[in-house]
Amino acid sequence: MARRRNAAREARRAARRAPRPPDAPSPWPFVGMGLMAASLFLHGASVLVAPWWGVVLLLVLWVAAFVVCVRWWTPHPRRVPLVAVVSVGVWFVVLLVGAVLGGW
């Protein structure tokens, strides 16, 4: 009986000491950066309908969102696609407000 307890205790210790394989990388930051690339094209193509200062404002906002995505790549990988979606939403709202109120 004592041998079984000792064997079980040793097995638990060995299981605790066994190295764990590294976790697989999350795909969400890659999805988010793909969306950020798509939103960059939207922001850049705004030069066709918006004045230069509106495009500069949009590109500054995009750079700020890109910096947030890069900083959140490892600590918050699931938030990176959300930042990209918000970037597209901001682009849409800015162009809509500019067209309605600014006559772009």
Automatic annotation (TrEMBL):
| TM annotation in the entry | 26-46, 52-73, 80-101
Q: Which domain of life is it from?
A: Bacteria
Which region ranges are annotated with the description Disordered? 1-26
Entry keyword set:
Membrane, Transmembrane, Transmembrane helix
Q: What is this protein called?
A: DUF4175 domain-containing protein
Q: Where does this protein come from, organism-wise?
A: Nocardioides aquaticus
